[in-house]
Amino acid sequence: MSLTPQESDYLEKKIGRKPNLLETQIVAAEWSEHCSYKSSKKHLRTLPRKGARVISGPGYDSGVLDVGDGYVVTVHIESHNHPSAVEPYGGAATGVGGVIRDILSAGTRPIAILDGLRFGDIENDTHARWLFKNAVRGIADYGNCLGIPTIGGEIEFDKCFTNYALVDVASVGFGKKERLIQNRADKGDFLVLIGGSTGRDGMGGSQFASDKLESENRSAVQIPDPFIEKLVIEVILNARNQNCIKAMKDLGGGGLSCAISETADALSVGIELDVSLIHKREQNMSPTELMVSESQERMLVITSPEKLATLKEICEKFRVSYSVVGVITDGNTMEVKSEKQTVAKLPSNVVANAPLLDRPSSVPKYLKHISLIEKPETPKNLSRTILTMLSNPNIASKHWVYTQYDHEVGIRTVIKPGKDASVLRLDNGKFLSIKIDGNSKHCYVDPRQGVIGCFDEACRNVICTGATPIGMVDHLQFGNPEDPEIFWTFKESVEGITEYAKYFEIPCVGGKVSLYNETDDGPIKPTPLIGVLGLIEDKPLMPQKAKTGDLIVLVGITKDEMGGSEYYEYVHGITGGRCPVVDIKSSKANQCAVLETISQDLVKAIHDCSKGGIGVAISETCITNDIGCHVFLDKIPSEKLKYDELLFSESHSRFLLTVNPSKIKKVKSLLEKKGIQNETIGKFVGHSITFKNKTKLVASVMVDKAQEKWLNSLGSLVNHG
Amino acid sequence: MHHVLTDVFKVESQLVWHTDNLPQNIDAIVLPGGFSYGDRLRAGVIAAHSPVIAEVKKMAEKGMPILGVCNGFQILVECGLLPGALLKNTSLSYICKWTEIIVKNNKTPFTNKLKLGQKIPIAMANGEGRYYADKETLCLLKKNNQIVFTYAEDVNGATMNIASVCNKEGNVVGMMPHPERSAEQILNPQDAKPASLIFKSLLNTLGVIA
């Protein structure tokens, strides 16, 4: 909870005196890595942020995208890793709460939650299982109670997350463009703190999150109360409708310290507040505690003197506590008082803008030896390998998780969780498709190609529903940035995202950086997460059931890219090799062509080919359609590969199309006209999932057996160990 | 629920605040789902003491059609309008999934367009949705034809797979699964028609359609 000596010097020079203890604490909260992005900010500037649909405003906590007809969609992503690693239930729940308030801050109603979860090896690690179980319950209890559907996400297990947890939450909002909060303030406006009372929970949470996880600092973990959050949402939206909100900020990491300094800085105003006016849940809290507490469910609203009475009325109607804590002043000073005595006075632009760092970086040494691995021998019984892959917790169905989440509430969820991407209907007749993807295994083997792959996968997932990507968010999670090797992986990731986003013209509308994700066992693998939003103007591709005789068309080429694959890692315990590389030109061509097959109504369903490769993608299609198939490995467009590589390579830019025989000619001619690599590799038939090479049987599993493995593995692991 | 009533089935409906009086000249009351008071203490128990519930009880006595869905059902049970209790699911988890219910009583204001034994694909979403009744109550439920829907499978350990019950008179119906999530084809992965008949039954009761 302190500043580095260099930062102290810098601060003294800037304010021309020694700061007092409270001032130091305020600045330390705001200058924590978590709040200030001091290590990452310089590099994040390369990300393309502009686009035809992007609406940006001062002080927005979420990205805003215009979806036409006077409506906007907002999106934001955050993590709550450190707290969730200590107290998974509360940590995950408050993670949901925090990101939802960011959506609310823009003046939009949160309409969906997605989460990305990562834990250690749950098959062998009971602690990881406990973390997983309780994080899921925390998200479920919080999101369900709010009446906001949790519509999707992704889950990964890897030993690098042992004794740790990555809990990422993305939220989507929807509203009218004209009702977006304008975020302006004038002298004499009031500062109103609305919602939960302030207590001693989450003390110094942002600094706790900006250090290695060494001790279980429980007082740094926040306590969730979803019912108050629900009331706060309704109060804020009511107040928005009655024009009571000139500006607004969620209280998250760094508590009031950050909210006040960032608001004053973003709106170029001064703020004067008295902490003794705050409604509290504990007595004798010091000004410092009040300024850095991260108690949840709090919003800071700036309202005009004329509207204050209406705002109070709305709070009272919903029985939500509030306190008028300060006023807007001239200048750019944030002045904190307690019982009318000034206890801190700082220029807000100094507080809100930490001195940025130029961290050194160097290529990690590990990369050299993991590229040199010997290929494993092809298993004799590939049928058994397919079943093993289907019961791999990283691949098995996640229905044990998403059936605990109310994913239907709000009746917008047209395509439900468990598919490539979930789809929500919007009030203007359009549809929003959204997916988040991460892959720490690929990113470890090649940080740059790994993240490009995640981006490509998220795009492919929304494309499978018929959506065109319109924006993305990223969440960059790494270990200690002071380690040059780790910092190099961070830089590579940012460059990878930038390259892909620029080529595909998908603007980055929001994101977050989370560093210091490490325990005594070491850092996590680089784990950037990419969320992609897609818009469907007309209607989504509702997957239709595959019937006997329907054909399986594979788009894209399969390569010798086994590095970081689930097959290498899970079946053979190998980390290394060549990670899948996206050829962005052909990937874009594939995506456009596939979208055209959808718009021309030529396909029954599309499934992305990713974790577990063709073997898994085809099995999943058969399992969910309750039908078998005959697939010919010799038909797969590929480099010269072994059977196991053909089945499990995770090469990107591939799609599996289910096509009615009557439409196959049209599909083929469309793809061929565009020069897209594709082949009809088999058809749906019978009750077994069968892979052949010409006439030779390579692998065959009964659909019901595959179903059993894929559907029940995760649930029985968690319930029965 | 409000959207489905007004936009899909064109029923004139309005939301009523928990401390307000019921509007004059209403024909039916629907208590929708949600987490009233965050399910604190026990689902529905605090809302059962809301001022508006006193009036709902009066209307129930007068024979007005009243439907409670999910948390609405829990409130109706907690305020004594419906028998039995709703306990935590046997999995101890929230369960959100699609299932099927079977019509057991098609004489209520909300089921009169359905056939006995008809199956309805429907969404369920609850944590405390396991219907429980003691033997005596169960006998009465059977005797008075108060079981309205049962699940086609054992979803949460409910007594006799009960998904919905009504009062003795049949005008107050509570159900755990969500007809309002299941009555539009775009949302229902199977067939939305059967669930829509629950609303059409209401329209029928109100004399809007034959």
Account of the 3D structure:
The complex is a heterodimer of chains A (721) and B (210). Chain A is built from 25 helices and 28 strands. With 721 residues, chain A is an alpha+beta fold. The two termini of chain A are 39 Å apart. The model of chain A has no long low-confidence stretch (mean pLDDT 94). With 210 residues, chain B is of the alpha+beta class. Chain B contains five helices and nine strands. In chain B, the strands form two sheets. In chain B, strands 1-2-9-8-7-4-5 form a seven-stranded mixed beta sheet. A two-stranded antiparallel sheet of chain B has the order 3-6. In chain B, a hairpin with a 5-residue loop joins strand 8 and strand 9 (172-175). At the A-B interface, helix 7 and helix 9 of A face strand 4 of B.
Quick recap of the structure?
With 721 residues, chain A is of the alpha+beta class. Chain A contains 25 helices and 28 strands. In chain A, the strands form five sheets. Chain A has a seven-stranded mixed β-sheet. In chain A, strands 23-25-22-26-24-27-28 form a seven-stranded mixed β-sheet, with helices on both faces. A six-stranded mixed β-sheet of chain A has the order 1-2-3-6-4-5.
List keywords for this structure.
heterodimer; A: 721 residues; alpha+beta; Phosphoribosyl-aminoimidazole Synthetase, Chain A, domain 2; seven-stranded mixed sheet; 28 strands; 24% strand; globular; B: 210 residues; Rossmann fold; two-stranded antiparallel sheet; 5 helices
CATH class of the domain at 543-721 in chain A: Alpha Beta
Amino-to-carboxy terminus distance of chain B: 23 Å
User: What would you report as the Rg of chain B, rounded to the nearest angstrom?
Assistant: 16 Å
> Number of DSSP helices of chain B?
5
Given helix and strand content, the structural type of chain B is: alpha+beta
N-to-C CA distance of chain A: 39 Å
The CATH homologous superfamily of the domain at 543-721 in chain A is termed: PurM-like C-terminal domain
Number of strands of chain B: 9
Taking the sheet with the most strands of chain A, its summary is: 7 strands, mixed
- What is the CATH topology assignment of the domain at 543-721 in chain A? Phosphoribosyl-aminoimidazole Synthetase, Chain A, domain 2
